[in-house]
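fyi for ur records
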Amino acid sequence: MAKKTTKRRPPGKPVVGIIMGSQSDWPVMRHTAETLEALGIAHEALIISAHRTPKRLDTYASEAQGRGLKIIVAAAGGAAHLAGVTAALTQLPVLGVPMHSASLGGLDSLLSMVQMPAGVPVGTLAIGRAGAVNAALFAAAILGLSDKKVAAALTRWRERQTANAPLVPSDEPQPAR
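which gave:
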């Protein structure tokens, strides 16, 4: 299976898989990859569609644990079946990131993921960039339970976030989050 990974991927065998339904999801999902990179967590990023490449998804999900993945982050818009189908095909934790959609602004994606039937859980995050970043942080929190290095990196991340939060409001323009 051909890999499409970010250029600065941390060395080592990937422990987090980032999958998305199409190339158009990458501008959002690159934030998952960049956050994992900042935390030093090895990962891979692939385009896998539940609708257009179902055999690719079946192979990926069923072989993921055997290849050393510990968590899969799945992004999709519209019907958003990617996260649910992935969760049905693996026992690994699946974190879903709903993408913005033209018709309902991502609400359709969110509801599709968050309404999984009992027995096939998908940890669903916020729509778009916030969900992509939080998926990486949530993956780090899970991995940090058994990996002291990841736990320390997440602690440093949160300490920097706290240190960058001003006490007094300012009239200066603030960067977008």
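The chain has one domain: 16-158. thats all i got for now
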